[in-house]
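User: These chains co-purify. Model them together.
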Amino acid sequence: MRGGFRHFLQTYSWEVVIFIFYLISVAVATFLSPLYLDAFQILYSLQQSMGIASILAIGFMMIILVGEIDLSLPAIVAVCTVSFARLSVNGVPLGLAILIMFTFATLAGLLNGFLIVTFSLPSMAVTLGMMGVYRAIALWIGGYEGFGLDAFKPSYIWVGSEFIAGVIPISFLLLVFLFILAYFLIHKSVYGRLLYATGNNRQATYLSGHSIKKVIASTYGIGGLMSGVAALVYIGQYQSARADNVANILLFVVACVALGGFSISGGKGRIVGLIFSILLLGTIQNGMGLANIRGPVQTLVIGLILIAAILVPTVMRAIGELRFRAKNLAEKLPAGSK
Amino acid sequence: MRMSETPLVQAPKSHWSVVILKNRVMGVLLFEVLIIIIFSIAAREFLTISNLNTIFLNACILAILACAEGVVIITRNYDVSVASMLALAAFVGFDLIKKFPNAGPVLILVPIGIGIVCGLINGSIVAYGRVSSVFVTLGGLSIYRGIVTIYAQGHQIEPKDIADWVRGTVTGSFLPGISNLAIIAILIVVLVSIYLRYTRIGRQIYAIGSNPDAATFYGLKVSRVILGAYVLCGALTGLAGFLFAARSSYVVPWFAQGLEMKVIGAVVVGGVSVLGGSGNVVGAALGAIVLTTMENGLILIGAQEVVRQLLYGFAIVGACILDASVLKRVSGLLKATKRRGAEA
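Assistant: Joint model of the two components:
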C-alpha cells in the first residue's frame, strides 16, 4: 500500500507524539537516576503509582467519550474500600464481598447516570453533589478513623499485593486484562461505535433510532464498576481504608484521559493513546519521585500537563483554521483583482 | 402579517414553573425562614442574638465567594479553582503584610491582584481556547495549590504575623453594632447584583449564559465577556481570601481546601441555574446564608459531620433537579405559545 506509513502517522499523530514524549521521559529518568532502568522497578512503581488511576481512567474514558463527566468516581472508590474493610471485619468471604461491592458500585454509577439523563441535568454539578453524598456514606460506614492493616483478611488483599512468579503484580495482569476488554468494547463492538456516535452527534444518534439515554447511563454504570475494581486493588496496595482516601486522584485521572487524546466534548480518542499517556505520566511521576521532587511540585507539574494537553489541540486547530483562511484568501485575491 | 403589539412569545403567567422561576429568590428566603423555625424549636440556643450574629458573619465570606462563582456560572461556565485561588491570594497577601508592616492598607490590593491574575489565566484559556471550563479550572485548582505550597516552604501565617490594621478593618465596626465584614459583604453583593441587572455588560453576561450561539450571532464579544466574568470572580475571590484569612488568623498552604463544593452548593441552592443565564447573585448570597444556617443548626442539635456532608450533596442535586425541570417546562410552554401564535 503506497503512503501507508504516512497515512498511519496522520491518523495516529497524537499517539505517536505521546509515545515519543514517553521515550524522552524514560531517557531523562534514566539520566536522573541510575536506579531507574530496572524492569522490576519500572513495573512495580508504575503499578504502585498508576494502577488505581488507570483502572479509574478506563471508566472515566467511557463517560468522556459520550461527552459527560463524573467527578464522583473517587468518592465511590472510597465507599467501596471502607465497605470491603467492614465486610472483611464481619467475616464475609471474599467472593460474596466482591459481588456485593461491585453491584453497589455499578448501581451508584447508574444512579448518577439516571439522574443526569432523566432530568437532563448538567453532569458536572450533579456529580459534584453526588460526590458529597458518597463521601458522607463512606464516612458513615468507615467512621473517622477508618480501617487499618488488621481489618483485612489475607484473601482480601491478595489481588492488590501479591506477585505472580515474584515479579509481575497480579493487579498489573488485571489491568492488562481490563485494557484488552476495553479495547474490544470500544473499538470492536457495536456498543463502542454507539459511544463515539453519541459523543459526536447526539441528535443524529437519537434520530437514527438509538436510545442515547441508555447509552449515557450505561457508561456511568461502567464507571461505577471500575471504581469498585479500583477499590479492590486499593485495599491490597495500601491495606487501609478511610473515608477520605483517593481524594486527590481525580486530577491524575483527568490528566491521563485528556493527555490520551480524548476530546472533552466527546467522541474522540483511542485506547492506545490512553495507554501511552498513562505510561508517560507514570514515568514522569516516577522520575520526579526518584529525583526527590516534593509532592506539591509533582501535583503542580501534573496540573500544567493537563492544561497543556487541553490547550495544544485547540492551538493546533486555530493554526489550521488560519492557514486554511490564508489559502482561501490567496486563491480569491487574484480573481478579485481582475 | 403584522406583529401584534404584545410580545408574541410569552409563557402563561400562572403556570407553576413560571411562578417558581420568577420567585426563586423568594423561595430561598422562605426556606431560610423555615429552617430557622425548625432549628429554634429543635435547639434552645439557636435563636439567640449572638448565634444568629455568628451565622451571619460566617455566611459573609461564603456569600462573597458565591457571588463570585455565581457570575461565572451565569455565563454557563464553572470555576472549581476558587478555593485554591483564595488560598494563594490569602497566603501571599498576608506574607507581604508580615514582611512590609509599614506599607499599610495598600496591601489589600495584593490578594485582589493575585485573584485577578488567576482569573485572567482561567478566563483566557476557557474563553479563547473554547475548552471545557471544568477541566481548565481543575488544572488551575492543582496549580494554584501547588504554587502556595512551594511559596510557603513549610511556613504558615500565625496570629502574631497579622498587622493590627487588618484586624481593625475586618473585625472592627465602622458603623456601631455592625461588623465591617458584614458591610463589605452586603455592599459587594448589592453592587454586583446591580451591575449584572442594569449595565450593558451585565445583560450581556445573562445573554451569553442563556444562549451562547445566539449571543455570538447577535454580535456580542462572547470571549471577552466570559474573560471579564472570570476576572471579576478572581478579584472577588482574592478579596474574600483577605477577609477569610483576617477572620481566621491562621493561614496554612491547605487553607480552605474543598471550599469550592460549598461555594457551588450555595450558588446552586440560591437559584442560579447551572445551565446558565438565570438566577442572580442575591440568591447566591442567600444560598450561602441557608447553607451556613443549616451547618450551624446541625452542629447545635448534635448531628454528625456525615449528616452535614450528606445534606450539602443532596442540596446541590435537589436544586439542580428543580431548576432543570422548571427550565424544561418553561421552554416547553414558550414553544407551545409560539406555535399557537404562529397559527393565529
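Chain A has a mean pLDDT of 86.
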